[in-house]
Amino acid sequence: MSEPGGDRWLQGFATGVLSVAAFAVCTVAVVWLLGGFDSGSGVSTDAQSVIEQNYFHEVKPSLLDNASINGMITTLKHRYDDRFSHYFDPRQYRQFAAANAGQFSGVGLTVNGVKSGLRVGSVLPNSPAKEAGIKPNDVIVAVDGRSLAGVSEDVAVSRVKGPPGTPVTLTIRSGGTGKPHDVHLKRATVNLPVATGHIAQAGPSKVAYVHFATFSSGSHGQLSSEIQHLYSKGAEGLVLDLRGNPGGQVNEAVLCASLFLKKGERVLSTRGRTQGSQVYDAIGNPLPSKPIVVLIDHNTASAAEILASALEEHHLATTVGSQSFGKGTFQKVINLPSGGALDLTVGRYFTANGTSLLGDGITPQVPAPNRPGKPGDEALKKGLSVLAEDLAVQNK
Q: 28 is in which domain, residue-wise?
């Protein structure tokens, strides 16, 4: 597919000398009108000044400022295949800040940003999204009729959020590929159960099954409590379900890994051009050592990938499921004097053995994708089977 305007460029080139002459005259005219360019100022400043003074419509400087910054970020994203850097203009940043200030509610989803919008990682029980029939791997492509294509994950999420009781219309592609259809919901205050579990059966053995939803502040404590509660009921092993977990705070990933790793063992490292290099080690006091299976899928991202890879690389767990998201970088929100902000990629993180997950993610040691239309939870069945084998070997 050619770029917009590609045919016009070809036609202009075919006219040869006439096009070149016209371009030369235009350049001379601009310089004459402005009295020449100031060699001490930036090219973008010069161009903006030309547009503001000569464009056939009056143009607000803020429009060009925002477009200029967006252009810079877009160029960096294309040049370095960076999916995660974004610019918030002042309006978007106010919306983002308000949506994360505790006064807004949502519809009960965890999501990951993709090119076309937001891919659903998990749907919370007793939530508006659950009642509306939204399912994991559905993709939200628009909110209230506004497309999410190319919109940053943070801005897209802030559009879904709003005051409790207010309506919102999500345009959904079922499974990410279906025909777009509208789903009408009312926002509600939904409590996210961070760590929920129960006793499951792995062959003849009782084991703990724990679903861990997000790495929010204090989540390591909830994970620890849930695991200890199930261990006290006689669980001989653990299935840690990180499917649909979009990640969160890096320090929580370290604290969660410390529930299993010995003190001083590597969890991850980070590197950034201006951030320097940093190593994060387990802080000690782990839970009793038992066989572990970690379930992952392509919605397992960021801090969840850090935890899963740390347990796998220290030979404490077997990963089961499908390829994880492949985040591999971390961002920093930097306020700008204009009132906007840059959500800028400032570094990369590496697993315990120094591997970058960027773009690749974790390849599970035991593949077990859930196939659409096939009943049951194939990944969980496989995980319990793997754990049963591990326990059988241990108990010989």
A: 7-80
Q: What is the mean pLDDT of residues 166-190?
A: 94
Domain boundary (134, 151, 186) is at 186
Q: What is the pTM of this model?
A: 0.78
Helices (H) and strands (E) in the chain, counts: 11, 17
Q: Is the confidence at residue 17, as pLDDT, over 50?
A: no
- Rounded Cα–Cα distance for residues 278 and 262 (Å): 19
Q: Which residues contact 305 (CB under 8 A, 6 or more apart)?
A: 247, 296, 324, 325, 326, 327, 357, 361, 362
Residue 353 has which token pair?
């053995």
The residue type of 153 is E
Show the tokens assigned to 156. Answer: 């897209």
Would residue 293 be called left, alpha or beta, if left means φ above 0 and alpha means ψ between -120 and 50 degrees? beta
The token pair at 364 is 């599970």
1 in any annotated domain: no
Of the CA atoms within 13 Å of residue 355, those in its CB half-sphere come to 17
- What's the pLDDT band for 372 if we cut at 50, 70, 90? low
Maximal CA-CA distance, the chain = 90
Q: 313 and 380 in one domain?
A: yes
- Local structure of 164: helix, strand or coil: coil
Indicate which CATH number applies to the domain containing 101. 2.30.42.10
Token digits of residue 321 = 């499921």
Closest CA to 291 of 195, 385, 194: 385
pLDDT digits (tens, 9 = 90+) for 294-306: 999 999 999 999 9
Strand-pair category, 366-367 with 317-321: parallel
Using DSSP, state whether 334 is helix, strand or coil.
strand
Domain with 325 in it: what CATH number? 3.90.226.10
Same structural domain, 99 and 75: no
CA 329 from chain centre, in angstroms, equals: 10
